[in-house]
Amino acid sequence: MPPRAGRHAVWPDRIRAEVVAAVRAAGVDHPWAHQARAAEHALDGESVVVATGTASGKSLAYLTPVLSTLLDGSEAPNGRGATALYLAPTKALAADQCRSVKELSHPLGHSVRAAVYDGDTPFEEREWIRQYANYVLTNPDMLHRGVLPSHPRWSSFLKALKYVVVDECHTYRGVFGSHVAQVLRRLRRLCARYGASPVFLLASATAAEPAVAARRLTGLPVVEVADDASPRGELVFALWEPPLTELHGEKGAPVRRTATAEAADLLTDLTVQGIRSVAFVRSRRGAELISVIAQERLAEVDRSLARRVAAYRGGYLPEERRALERALHSGELLGLAATNALELGVDVSGLDAVVIAGYPGTRASLWQQAGRAGRSGQGALAVLVARDDPLDTFLVHHPEALFDQPVESTVLDPDNPYVLAPHLCAAAEELPLTDEDLDLFGPAAADVLPQLEAAKLLRRRTRAWHWTRRERAADLTDIRGEGGRPVQVVEAGTGRLLGTVDAGAAHTSVHEGAVHLHQGRTYLVRSLDLEDSVALVEQASPTYTTVARDTTSISVLETDTEIPWGDGRLCYGSVQVTNQVVSFLRRRVVTGEVLGETKLDLPPRTLRTRAVWWTVTEDQLDRARINPEILGGALHAAEHASIGMLPLFATCDRWDIGGVSIPLHPDTLLPTVFVYDGHPGGAGFAERAFRTARAWLTATRQAIASCECEAGCPSCIQSPKCGNGNDPLHKRGAVRLLTVLLEGAPAQEAGEPGEAPAGAGAAPAPQPGPETAPDPGPGPAPGAPPGPEAPPAP
């Protein structure tokens, strides 16, 4: 990708001279044009989203007007006439930004008092922050649980609140984004109570329709600044397909070398050459594996090099995370295997190369990760190593899908009743809810309130609804959709706490017999106690990793919309999913060879959610030459591949969605394929699938048809999480079935002009196997924690 020259501008003259001087002292003589435009909007009191590339100076675009306003406020009699709140999706990013703000504002003396307020902040510092800090950096979780419920203690801060900075706002998508949208509405309501009306300044990676997404997130009109005027060094972007091995997988399918092993080799080679690199991987376990393999290979070359590679992921203790960040900043570490905890804007300057182990789920994330290389304007290398799955394989063979397509729209649904209900309760506890407040929380609020009254969570007295319980309403929900108490991972011999695993992921990642990695050490799970949320582990050295498998059944609760597709139908509506983890596979670490399967006895979990599904008729099956013997395999193969391809059309991850296929579904009385959201109440992904169905299923058909394998492999129709052991599957039948289905697709997409419709599927359980979103999580009562988030297999 060729280099690009930058375009300069001048700061608005309303920015204080002292701030301009501080920015110059930091080495920035003139702003880029997009920085000056964003600052102008902020000073005009207009909420603005800056959606430009990585390392384009977004931080300076919002910091300059913020610092100038804080400087004005420091001249008030109480020294705090203006305050600003900064929200980051991760603790690491907030800590990094705090460092940057302190360095930049150093010439301004004590006028700017920046402080991080999160779960790691010592209690003795918290009161000082509430009383004296004028720039508070936190995360949406702490805002939800710590700041808003105790707003009287924050009253002087909220009264003076001028700006709310929402950094990396493209990450607020799906259920998490919907929760954050409601947290921001609660914040706006309390600010209004204290007489403040803050301006929102949002920073996003390049995204489609950033102003639309920012408006849905904040509930306010937002101006868009998306013309990136910063310079860019040349970026060499390699698409890397691992080679086929001599081994055979399920049903004799050819097996490629794993993306994890290939990424570890690349990280090793880059480290040996002294090149500062980060390998991004989607799962915590994958990050640990890459760092372990790289350390072992580096030790064979030079023992001192092994210490210069580490893993960075969520779930570490705070002091471990901070030590790794410092080592990376100082250059003590040359190579890092990281989950997306590091993807988000932590300023790691001077990186020469980025290795991405598996497509990260969205083009926005891909460019965000690739953009970490060459931050100082020098040339850089990015390598996308394809995993053995339909989407990755499709992308390395169709680079135009990455390089010629705009990034996706951010999908979130703040009106999801499962999201809205707990926030209405939390808002009522903060301040009794009145009819005037309902507009702020969206059109669904008026329908949800009577349900909360019936559940005796809220009670109406005179003109307002009040919270009725003793417990804190903010504890009703986990805004990251992780659902329930995290499971503590404890070393059996010593009782030492190693870390935690999200409740929704426990069934798939710390079941009995699972391999668990922590800081380069390997453990085997001895037992999982779901009642006490404790997994006991002991150190071990297995030669394999483990992958959980589950089964799913599904029933249609309500069909919201259906469209004829020839004789078949494309539908969207509400479903109930029952899911159970039934076994796990043991796979060899480097080759991915399956060594065996072990049964598990874990309880089923139910989930009410949203789904898209499609049906086909007997006439269509005849035209596609699908007889009863191959029908189950053809539906099953189409279901797997369509789930694998959906992340290209919706900002989801394969592990956010699930699917089921069945030759005769009791609710539709037809062969049906379902694809559903893996979160209570839905996350917007199935709706996006419905609206882009023709384009989505066309790409699915193309991915299966163009794969070189004979009868199906992980690159096209096999799924890593299929509860039926990828049996039955019929590759050619799936291609013929999708061809006939697409012939009947309407010319116009269902609700999205210009994109064609296609279908995705429906069906429950014991037959052609379900591919399920990880552990659907506890049942569906409004206010219950939103559902699953399972880590992908490494």
Describe the 3D structure.
With 794 residues, the chain is α/β, with parallel strands linked by helices. Helices cover 33% and strands 23% of the residues. It contains 25 helices and 29 strands. The chain has a seven-stranded parallel beta sheet, with helices on both faces. It has a six-stranded parallel beta sheet with strand order 8-15-14-11-13-12, with helices on both faces. A hairpin with a 2-residue loop joins strand 21 and strand 22 (521-529). The radius of gyration is 26 Å and the shape is globular. Mean pLDDT is 87; it is low at 751-794. Residues 745-764 have a biased composition (Low complexity). Keywords: ATP-binding, Helicase, Hydrolase, Nucleotide-binding.
Average of the residue pLDDT scores: 87
Strand order of the largest sheet: 3-4-2-5-6-1-7
CA-based shape? globular
Which regions contain 5 or more consecutive residues with pLDDT less than 50? 751-794
* Helix/strand/pairing category: alpha/beta
Pfam families: DEAD, Helicase_C, MZB, WHD_HRQ1
Keywords: ATP-binding, Helicase, Hydrolase, Nucleotide-binding
Protein name: DEAD/DEAH box helicase
GO molecular function: helicase activity
